[in-house]
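User: Please predict the structure of the protein below. I'd like the answer in structure-token form so I can feed it into my own downstream comparison script.

Assistant: Understood. Taking the following sequence of 256 residues as input:
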Amino acid sequence: MNTAKSYDELAGIYHLIFEDWNASIERQAASVSQLLLKFGVEANQSILDCACGIGTQSLGLAKRGFKVTGCDISSAAIERARKEASQRELDIRFIAADMRDLSALGDTLFDAVICLDNSLPHLTTEQELLRAATQIRSRLRRGGVFIASIRDYDLLLVQRPVVQGPFMYGDEASRRIVFQVWDWVDESHYQFHLYITRRIAGEWNTFHMAALYRGFRRSELEAVFRQAGFTNTRWIFPGESGFYQPILIAQTGSKI
């Protein structure tokens, strides 16, 4: 399954999966910026958002003063993110790049790398995940911090849900229905289907995209990032972080 193509198709309407995308930008930036500060990354320091999509985290963090670079496997998402940043008069560098190969960034190093909204599980094998973790590690300065969020797969791999939603957003004139279907392939992989049904010119239309995910348990994810050279790994949960998913923190060692 071609992940880049799926997100290229979604890029133009990605914001519709949120009840209020702009409110989500602000809310997530508030949580993530507090985590960055907690782990020694100040508002004037550099951040790589290595699965930036259309800019949900990049836009909010740049507005708060962080020096943000964003990259994503989807070139259409990158183009959308550039437009969103321009409309908000935010100076963000956006580059089309796969987190498994960050050579397009040149020699640039960062004080922090973030990878949020369950992006890591698109890497469906431990080998792919290790490749990405090694690339991310190579982009961090000494004392840098990596922040990732994923779904709570320790729970979900037991529950094996097949539907999420439906969620009803908007009013009578702009109503839309957003829901997901999960088709489990084996004990840890599932094919994810996203449906967005909305009224356009008086008629109901449905958009569909699909992607493959690997449900990584927290211990599995930590083990791969430690193998890539990260230290001081720990998990922070929504009750502490204010973010809607469990968050992995991994560091590169103490600053000189």
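That's the full token string. The chain has eight helices and eleven strands.
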